[in-house]
Amino acid sequence: xxxxxxxxxxxxxxxxxxxxxxxxxxxxxxxxxxxxxxxxxxxxxxxxxxxxxxxxxxxxxxxxxxxxxxxxxxxxxxxxxxxxxxxxxxxxxxxxxxxxxxxxxxxxxxxxxxxxxxxxxxxxxxxxxxxxxxxxxxxxxxxxxxxxxxxxxxxxxxxxxxxxxxxxxxxxxxxxxxxxxxxxxxxxxxxxxxxxxxxxxxxxxxxxxxxxxxxxxxxxxxxxxxxxxxxxxxxxxxxxxxxxxxxxxxxxxxxxxxxxxxxxxxxxxxxxxxxxxxxxxxxxxxxxxxxxxxxxxxxxxxxxxxxxxxxxxxxxxxxxxxxxxxxxxxxxxxxxxxxxxxxxxxxxxxxxxxxxxxxxxxxxxxxxxxxxxxxxx
Amino acid sequence: xxxxxxxxxxxxxxxxxxxxxxxxxxxxxxxxxxxxxxxxxxxxxxxxxxxxxxxxxxxxxxxxxxxxxxxxxxxxxxxxxxxxxxxxxxxxxxxxxxxxxxxxxxxxxxxxxxxxxxxxxxxxxxxxxxxxxxxxxxxxxxxxxxxxxxxxxxxxxxxxxx
Lengths: 377, 162
Known about the structure:
The complex is a heterodimer.
Chain A: H1 2-16, H2 24-40, H3 58-65, H4 86-93, H5 98-105, H6 109-115, H7 118-129, H8 135-163, H9 171-181, H10 184-192, E1 198-203, H11 205-208, E2 215-224, E3 229-234, E4 241-246, E5 251-252, E6 277-283, E7 291-298, E8 317-321, E9 333-337, E10 344-346, E11 350-357, H12 361-369
Antiparallel strand pairs in A: 1-2, 1-5, 2-3, 2-7, 3-4, 6-7, 6-11, 7-8, 8-9, 10-11
Chain B: E1 7-11, E2 17-21, H1 22-25, H2 29-37, H3 54-73, H4 77-90, H5 95-108, H6 112-126, H7 131-138, H8 146-155
Antiparallel strand pairs in B: 1-2
Helix pairs in contact in B: 3-4, 3-5, 5-6
Pathway (chain B): Protein modification; protein ubiquitination
Domain SKP1 component POZ (chain B): 8-67
Family (chain B): Belongs to the SKP1 family.
């Protein structure tokens, strides 16, 4: 009975070890502690003996036996790094930096597989790239990998026809390369080495250019590890604009997963009240991509900000203010209709599109941090 | 268990007897259960076994006794600082000989602090080492074919795999 319990425990530990911290074992032990005390009555010298046998998992043993040094075999009570159960070994490896993990991957086959695992790299990904890599970037990465794989397949097929030998060309090697291509580690390395251009949005594009103050535009970005900054390619009408040396703080994950050429359907028009923080799409003309512009909902002229008596939210007319511009500027204010607004504007002033209301304090704080030191003409 | 007991006796997997104070034993969940469940009074002559070898158990108990006062009562920052220094000294041990035993024991005895400390020590040993140095320290054989090694180099040109 006791041995059954132990093997049951070790099974639980084994199955849990892929996902959780060491302390989660406590949960399972807690569950079974009442059984332990029952058994104990018949034999007092009980032990938590899963330390000795079941934790050194048979699967691991088989995998590692080849890479252990021969002279180590005789040393019965010594534990090698590769003898460690899944969980402790993982706990060690997750304390390594990306470069150290890469290094460890070159030690032996078993460590190569562990050090390349998505589980370890997802954590590193989140740490370094979590704030700039979003769904659209992952999507682009998957397309990138798929197109590279189809290139490899085509090359293989060409080789096949060229040689007239109806034997599958080294599918094992090809398979191995494909597998590592779509790993999280491969994405991390491609990003860090600047080989992968990813979609994101850039605040105050073109280095605080007055024409883009307090806006956020879609771009393709590439990291430069030497300067710890990014290079951006914007897609305006006609030509690509390029900007270098963009710091991390000016990047964000696109909050809406839509193309900059698509008009966003506002879902907050009825809720807009004076003082609300918003972002609104704006484009110069209908061929240009939209950017997102920060603004605040203002009071109607007739209202004069009468505190509790303000009725601006009952009116169909909504005033949007862009206070980075001088009061006299034509960009300072625009008016939209709450009921019918989709896109408004003309070829001179540009077109104001979809509106999203900002709810998150963080988002609002980021805009405020980007505020220009003087108002824009 | 009567509250008058201040220390308990346990057996290592080698059969040696060890004394551990009750407050130190509380650092480990399983030992804590033992305190609650097992009879430690004088007329009870059976001694529980802990499946950790003597060499390792000495160190684990040393760690528990050192950390017990702080764990039970909380401590000032200067104590915490002193304890950190002590931990560093404590972890200066032969890796293949005992570090991994300590790690396994901490895992088995559910000692979070010691577990983290041992993992960090092991990870620190890997830092700044070449692949061949790591193989040497941890007794690992290079089982890559030259083709596989070449493939690794190709995939991750930034890393050295010598």
